Amino acid sequence: MRFRDITSITGMGGLYKMESHKPSGLIVTSLTEGWTKFISNREHLFSPLDNISIYTADDTVELLDVMLKAYAQKDSNPPVDAKSDNATLSAYFEKVLPDYDKEKVHFSDIKKFIKWFAILDEKGVLATEVEEKAIAEAKEKMDEESGKEQVAKEEKE
């Protein structure tokens, strides 16, 4: 399961895997409860996680990048309970994303981030994304090296 396949649905807690698109909605599977059903776009709005960003002092950062930062520091900075007090939530999130915009990112957003992080970590989505990113970087490095070899070969001729 990939991050780009996961969505949030207004009015419904948790996260959902998009199984199929229909003109009038989506067929989704709940990541926490396991059921699959059709959700109408007349009653709900869908927010694919790969379209969500978090405000920083300068710009925005994609949610996946912040999730991967939190995943990388999971041992040194374990996620706090989503029901923690605001000071604890803020201290945790500041370690994950030090320059987040404290005026635009609300405590409810941090709570949602923590809940989503737990779900994605439990389902292995974040581990998969780390592996995919490493594979993509290795492939890019190989392509870059083969491009340099090709240029060197052409210069010899």
Outline:
The protein is of the alpha+beta class and 157 residues long. It has helices at residues 63-72, 86-96, 107-122, 125-156, and strands spanning 6-9, 12-22, 25-30, 36-40, 46-48, 53-55, 60-62. A five-stranded antiparallel beta sheet has the order 4-3-2-1-5. A two-stranded antiparallel sheet has the order 6-7.
What do these coordinates show?
The protein is of the alpha+beta class. 44% of the residues lie in helices and 22% in strands. The chain is built from four helices and seven strands; from the N terminus they run βββββββαααα. It has helices at residues 63-72, 86-96, 107-122, 125-156, and strands at residues 6-9, 12-22, 25-30, 36-40, 46-48, 53-55, 60-62. Strands 4-3-2-1-5 form a five-stranded antiparallel beta sheet. The protein has a two-stranded antiparallel ribbon with strand order 6-7. The model has no long low-confidence stretch (mean pLDDT 90).
